[in-house]
Structure formats: structure tokens, C-alpha cells
């Protein structure tokens, strides 16, 4: 059988396993292993005597993946960025941010939800993982919103969507993963995420205000905070500014000198500061132990998906499915912008079924060169290019678009990780509830992505300064 | 017959011979024998030898310095200051070593046999700020250099600071490393040349050795005609590689000029000092260590120099 | 589904085995967490050494790569014990009683088959890097400072073997629930009722935020 045909069958089988409720990481690994056995046995013409050989080669090939892919300096950012999130929780930063946001902006229509969005945006500046952000805010913000009468599904949707901001606003694990796959400057990409991240937060906020103005049963504004109370809420949230400044200085020195180190180091130093803060705020050994075990649980869950999907991706490599796709896309004769929009739409569809990191790992080796070629190549000047930007800038722009798409997929059914996590943390909510509550934010994300496509300056202004 | 070849990164000067080889083999067998080249889809670069040993794919490229314990015999080719002065000599020396029984025996443990090398010129460093053209200025210098090169720089007080090649540019920009050692094509493809103020033209401390290997079972399963097509294409593939890399080296000076990078010539006296500290002592340590592990280290070592001599006499 | 689930306990042999194994698994997860903490400390040491004393940490990347499997994989069985690996519950969520236990049994069996094969595959991966006759028993070492890689590779089959034990216990639990027609079996992750979950939550979060 044609290896591409095997690839399509196995991919179909993977979707069936996932829908039947097999845990995603293992479904992907299982499909990948079966696919590898199939492809090696196919190579020996389905000779019954060679099945043992095919099984052995497939199992040993798959057996390389967990250690080989996980032992990576680049991916070491993920546990660090998750740890920082949990430590910030124990340092009281999450609560402080939410409190400050509430006192300053909860008076607007839909106030608590808007506050939640801006608090998650603030927290995004110390958290590199969307899922961790959603988990932490599910504990803090949802009960408050329920107390003043918000619809529980909508409250959950706000947190699930707000959590996605963590991957655009630096530090961001997924932007680093993108930079490493396409071999672009990590620092510039992290800088580029900042404005689109804040921009997304604004669009979310606007959407909530519009909903609140047009729906009667929506959560009421929360008013009555004095200016004294407002200012009193600022100092506890202030340390976050210190962490932001440090992480920025490790990426890019705005005063023109050398940056202080790598983003990886910046994240770790940030975590260390938050750790010291948590100690000072009274964190003791049992709490530290809990934070470490929680970090381990979330990290292991994510890494299990990573190596599981990568066993499947390894099989795809043997089936040659990605390069078949590349040949097809470059043979199209439509306008480049139309093709780009189609690619983004394809990500939206793919993201319905895959997790963000798996999706990027799977597709970028194929899609990125195609997009760069559409623009006129890696070294093209802005004047000669299809999208009106140089090769480097196109790489950054596409990275932000793709990460925004990947974040979008964290809240789309059927595999929206953020929604699973929120439902997991809040017993009163089923996954279906969260998916229903998050639906309005699809619209907000669609608007944001359209604007980022139409006005690349939103993305490119900051990195062009560096 | 259909073979898979596992490479990494993207198509570049460093992989041109494999593409040429695939093209020639397909031509000579009228399409009966094809080689699919995969960049990273089949394995991770440091696991390519493992993949060959499993039998997952039939051909692969790897670099000796990635895992010296897997391929101790050919690490002789990564010793600093061997005195190899051009790509032709690099090919001659590499293939002479590959033909040595100790190498064949070690590769056979991985079910692999050597096919050809991927010759690279001497690594040189790029840096920012004032050029470092005296040995004393290497003290405390943070340099991105692996394997034997890292040891050479260590010997003069520099600190090898390992970042992945794709992080090298960022590491330079942020001051994590002061200098990066690469071959020319890598300075280009990883962008370190864009960040650089200067490039050492004649430091020439050594290079990295990256062979192409094939799986023994797969090689023996080829028909006589296919095997002949493969074997007879190696020289032509290497010639193609050398011509292509030669063009890149010819344009190198204009690249430097275009990027405003200063070409630094280090005085012969300084080079002699470097060789004295980082050459012989590291060679002696290698001989001792490898002999202790039962390798014919002295024989391999001598083979390098006798081959160099005859290669020069032949020209 | 992600996150919290409860595992019921009683005095049966199965439940005692479950709790015994869970203690081991918790310890392994804690080791994973300590690894993440060590990463942070390593970066602080590296940055301080480099900027303060012009003496960067030698082999920084090598140490990170050695620690990662411990962080990312070692505690995998603990996550499985608590039902923490994510899945879609659109179909399974509709099932009840024997049908549910049968479905759980089958997917768990598939995972056991996968993990058993991966113990073989990851052991082979370890075995290729390990050789009693060489210095440090190493046939594969790290790029910068030549750390032997086999210990990090050994972490994976060990973690996966513990995962297999866990899966066998869960199969036993689901099988027993199916045969006896139980509604609340021990030793398998159950989705908590709202009240239980809130209590557990309050316990965990109390005083920290
Ligand atoms: Na972030
Ligand atoms: Na999704």
C-alpha cells in the first residue's frame, strides 16, 4: 500500500480513538506505533515471517522518542514557566492581581469578567503556559463571579479564554518552541508577542462590555471601591512589575546595551524572584512540596502529550505525509494572501483535534517554508515581497499568527486543553459547559486574527525597534 | 529498492553530496533504486546512529563530536591542529581513517558501515567588539565550540559554553557567548555572521567530522547492480560537494565585505603558542585515553599524518 | 478529563496494593518536581557565575538535558493514578455501570499494551548507550562535558514499568467493577461529586492565596 494511504488510515484511526475517550497522549502514541509497525511490515511485503522484525524495528524506533525528544534544553522552559505560575499563586500574586483589577475596573458593565481578563493578562507576564494560567484563575476568579450572579458557563469561558493570553505575552513557552523549530531569534519573537497579547486582552474586554450592555441577565458591575482602597491594592501586585522588567531585560535591553542573558535564563530568574517572594509571604515546606508536585503533574501531562504526539509525528515522517502536503501547497496558483488565510483556517480545523504544541511540532516543518516561499524567500527585502515585509519580519509575523491560532485551539472543542483544565479544577462545571461559555470568545479571536493579518504593524512595530 | 536517508536541519552545502548521490543512483539504475532524503523526520540528529542500528532507515549522517563514546575511533579526525589545510585533504584523511579496520569494527557494532565523509573547512570564530588576535585575549572568553575544538579553547583559558546551533545567534546577541566557532556555511545559515564584527581567517584550530553511513544488512541486500551504482557514485557526489563548497568559499570574502566584518589575521607567533598548548598535549591525552580503551590509537593517529603527506605529494 | 478525580479506598487487597503503589508514585512525582526546582537553581547559578565571576557553569546544557527525563517522565504513573492525563469524555461521559467499566477496561488495556511495548523500546534505547566494558559504562555521552547519558535513558523504562503496574491494578479495578456490577469501585480514578471536590479543593488552597 502507498505510504501516504497508510498515513491517512492511521490518522483516521487516531481520531476514532480520541473520540472514544482514550487518553490523548496514549492514543497518539498508540496510533503512531501501529502506523510504524504497518509501514515497516509493508516494506517487507506483509511476509508473515517478517512481522516480528517489523514489530521490533517499530517498537525500538518509537522507544527512542520519549527520552530523545524530552531531553531538550529548549523544552526545559516548560517546567520552569509552569513552576513560576504555581509559585506566583503561593506568593499571593494571583490574588493580588485579581484584587487590584477588580477594584480598578469592576465598575464597568460585566466588570468582574473584564477584571479577570486583565488580571490574566498581568499574570501572563510571569506565566509561560496558558494551561497553568487557566488552572490558577479557575480557582480564584470563578467563585467570585458566581458569587455576584454570573452565569457559570460564561464565568468558566472567561477564564479559559483569558488563560490563552499567557502564550502571547512573554514569557511564552510556545513562542520559544516556534522560534526553535524555524530557527529565528527567540528574543525578537518574545517581544513581538507583547502588543498582540495586550491587543487580544482589549478585544476580549470590549466583547464582554458589549455582551453586558446587551444582555439583561449578565453579571452586574461591582462598584463602591474608594480611591484609597484602589491605591491600597497596588503594592501587593507591584512585584509582578519587577519580574516583567527582569524578563524584558534578559530578552532586550531598551537602553541599547547588551541584554542580560537568554530568555531561558530570564524565565528561571523570574521564577527565583517569585520563589523568594513566596517564602517571604510565608510559604513553608508543605506548600513548596505541593507546588512542586502540582508543577510535576502539569508538566508530565504536557510532556506525555508531547512525546505521544511525536511518536505519531515520527510515523508521519516515515509515511512522508508532510512533504506530500508541501508539494501540494506550493503547486497552487492563488494569490499568496488567500493561501495564507487558507493556511490559518486549516490551523483552526486541525486545532480542533490537536493540542497546540503537537500541532506546531507537526505542521511547521512543512508549512513554514511554504509561507516563507510565498513571501518571496527567507532573504527577500520588504519591497520585493508578497506581504510587504522582509523575510525575517515575515517569520515573526507568521509566528505570532500561528501561535494566536494555536491559542485559539486551546479553547475550541473537542480537544481544547484550557477548557479541560478549567472543568477539571471546577467540579460544578462539565467540559461541555466550559465549551459553551467560551463560544463568544471565538468571535473575539477571529476579529483579533483578522486585524493582525490586515495590520502587521501591530506585531512588527516592537521587534523592529530591537 | 527504496532507501530512507536521515539528515537534519535543511538542505545546505553540508548535505549536497547526499542529494547528488541519490540523483546518480536513481539515474544509473533507471529508477530501480531510490533514496528518500528526510530532514529530521526519521530521527533526531544525535540518534541517527541508533536508527541505523535498529534498521529504521538505511542511510544517515552524523557528527563524531555529538557522541564520542559511540564512535571513538573517528574522533581522531576532530583533534585540534591536525594541519589539514583544504577540503581535498580533509576528504583524503577522513576516507583513509574510515577504511581502517578499527573504524569498521566499531561501526559494525551499530550495524553500520562508512560510505563517505562530509568534508568541512577549518572552523574559525566570529566575535563582536575589538578583535581577539592575541592568545591572552582568549582567557575567560566564552566560546561556542564543541568536542575537540572546545577542549582546545579550554586549554588557553576560554570557557566553552554550549548552546544549540540555532541559539548561537541569540547567545551572541545577548552576550551569553563572546564568540562562536563554525564552518563558513554554518556562520551563514545560523546568522552568526550578521552579528559579527570580526572573523578569524587563520586560527584554523580544527574541524568537525560528519560521515554518511549505511546499514550493513540493507547494503548487503542490494542487488549487485544497485550496489555497484551506489559505490561508483560516491566519488562523483564528493566532487559535486567540493565544487559547491568551493563556490561558497569563493564568495566568502565578498560576504564579509557586504556584512562589514573585519578579517582578522593572527600573527604566526600567537598561532604557534596556541598549537603548543592546545595541540600536542591534547593529542597525547587522546592517545593515552584511547589506547587504554583498547583502540589502536597510535596507528590511527599516524595514519592521519601519513595520509596527509601522500595527499600533498600526489598534488 | 483533566485534573481532579478521586480514588476510593477500602480494606481489600486491591485497595491496599493501590495505596502502596500510590506512595511510590507520589515519591516519583515529587522527584519530578524537585527536578523542575533544580532547573531554576541551575539557571540562577549559571547567570550569577557568568555575570559575577566570569565563570559560567560548565556543562549547563548537558545537566539540563540529563534532568529533563526525570522532570517530564518519572512521575507519569502518579498522573495516571489520579486520572490526570487528558481525554475527551464526550462519549465516555454518557456511559454508566457495566458499559462504562467495559469501555474503561478496553482503553486501559490498550494503554497497557502500548506501555509494555514502550518498556521494551525504551529499554533497548537505554541498552544501546550502556556497556559494562567501557569507562562509566557509557557508550553515549553528552557533548560538552561528556556526562554518561545512560542514567537519563534508564529513567524512562523504569517510569514506564511502574506505569504498567499501575495499569494492571486499574484493569483489575475496572474488571472487578464490571463483574460485580459496582457503582463506586476502589483503586480507579472516579470523577468526584461537586461536594467532595470542593472539600478537597478547600483543603489544598486554604491559606495560600
Ligand atoms: Na506569558
Ligand atoms: Na482544540
Automatic annotation (TrEMBL), chain A:
Assigned keywords, A-Z: Cell inner membrane, Cell membrane, Membrane, Transmembrane, Transmembrane helix, Transport
Localization per record: Cell inner membrane
Residue intervals passing through the bilayer: 12-41, 74-92, 112-142, 154-181, 193-215, 236-255, 267-283, 295-313, 333-350, 386-403, 408-426, 438-462
The keyword Ribonucleoprotein is annotated on this UniProt entry: no
GO CC, any one term: plasma membrane
Residue ranges constituting the TRAP C4-dicarboxylate transport system permease DctM subunit domain according to the UniProt record: 12-458
A single MF term (Gene Ontology): transmembrane transporter activity
Membrane topology: Multi-pass membrane protein
Pfam families for the chain: DctM (PF06808)
UniProt function note: Part of the tripartite ATP-independent periplasmic (TRAP) transport system.
The protein's name: C4-dicarboxylate ABC transporter permease
The organism of origin for this protein: Pseudoponticoccus marisrubri
TrEMBL record, chain C:
One of the record's GO cellular component terms: plasma membrane
Record keywords: Cell inner membrane, Cell membrane, Membrane, Transmembrane, Transmembrane helix, Transport
Subcellular location: Cell inner membrane
UniProt-recorded Gene Ontology molecular function terms: transmembrane transporter activity
Residue ranges constituting the Tripartite ATP-independent periplasmic transporters DctQ component domain according to the UniProt record: 39-172
Domain of life per record: Bacteria
Coiled coil (UniProt feature): none
Transmembrane annotation, as ranges: 26-48, 60-79, 99-125, 145-169
Membrane topology: Multi-pass membrane protein
Pfam families xref list: DctQ
Principal cellular location given in the protein's record: membrane
Quaternary data: The complex comprises the extracytoplasmic solute receptor protein and the two transmembrane proteins.
Function: Part of the tripartite ATP-independent periplasmic (TRAP) transport system.
Annotated family: Belongs to the TRAP transporter small permease family.
Identification of the protein by name: TRAP transporter small permease protein
Organism: Pseudoponticoccus marisrubri
Classification of source organism: Bacteria, Pseudomonadati, Pseudomonadota, Alphaproteobacteria, Rhodobacterales
